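seq/struct pair 1
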Amino acid sequence: MRSVLEHELVVITGKGGVGKTTIAAAVGLLAAQRGLRAIVVEVGDQTRLPGLFEHTANQPGVETRLQERLASISIDPDRALLEWLQALGGRVSGRVLASSGTFQYFAAAAPGAKELVSMVKIWELTQRRRWQRRAAGYDLVVLDAPATGNALGMLGSPQTFGAIARVGPIAGQSQRVRELLEQPGRTAYLAVAMATDMAVTEALEIQDGLRKQLGRTLDWVIVNGLLPQRFTAAELKRIAASSVDGHAPRGQARGTAKDEALRRSAALAAQTVHDRARFQHNQVARLRRRSFEVAGIPFVWGSGMDLPAIERVAEQLGRRL
């Protein structure tokens, strides 16, 4: 199977709160570690990437260098629209075009205008020849897309505008973006899910939406936060037995009431984690029964997500993607 990193664009989406930004950061970092120039794109006023890499974010619409061969950008639709208009207008000032009452009405009233402008900017980031002559090109663009419904609307915006504007520069640009999104050799689609019923169901909805809108399927489903199955059934039985009626394990003296309470708590914790891990395993099996390529990411223990944690996630992804 072709590596995800061999594409021009990687789109990462899924249910909100499942760790999409972490996975996007890890994919970008993995690409940089393998010698590619990569940029991770945020949308919807999000600027979380620079903080994860201990950097201060530039203003929206301006690329931020995170480390060697890796950058990020939070798309500002207004700035992206101005850049696009300047590219379309040639010597005519983009500000003059942007002030056109007709265009302003069109941009405000047409469904998906902001989403289309964002997608056009993402397309521009994949180009060797950028709108700004001195801007460097990238080998890989990683899109930290919105949650499922909004992501599908954003990905469908070129088709929406293609139907509205059948000729002219907007129609032409919409078609170029559609070609990028529809061609398997150019764009890869990753869904991120926790191993819960709702998140897995949403991954299935992404698959259905991609087929309907773009004729595409998910390349991978990344299941985040998997717990290890540490104990066998026999080991759990022994742990449970040691906590019942205050009986200590064979060869050990019976402890104090505090010791007994600690054993009961430890046995309960072991059983709870085991049950949770088994439930997660069943959700992963549910995805695999649908013939998805699934990559599991172990739960990261800690007070928060930092760069070393992202590096560990990138290492895990590197073994699969």
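seq/struct pair 2
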Amino acid sequence: MTFFVVVEVSLRPGISDPEGATIERALPALGFQGISHLQTGKVFRFNVSASSEDEAIATATSIADRLLSNPVIEQSTVRVEMTA
């Protein structure tokens, strides 16, 4: 089976996010008010061929931990969105 997975990578709590802070400071100049605690991250979407959803998640988690994120400063979440 083929599973469509989504991996979201974000900074761990306590790690500064200068890009997010810059975006947050720019929002009022663009007319957006009331936005706070903005955080940036990365999203990866791909298909995984596996015999089960659990196996697809395990494969995607391994990829996220070994290649897509820096586990020292980033955390990742993996989910299956749909079967492709």
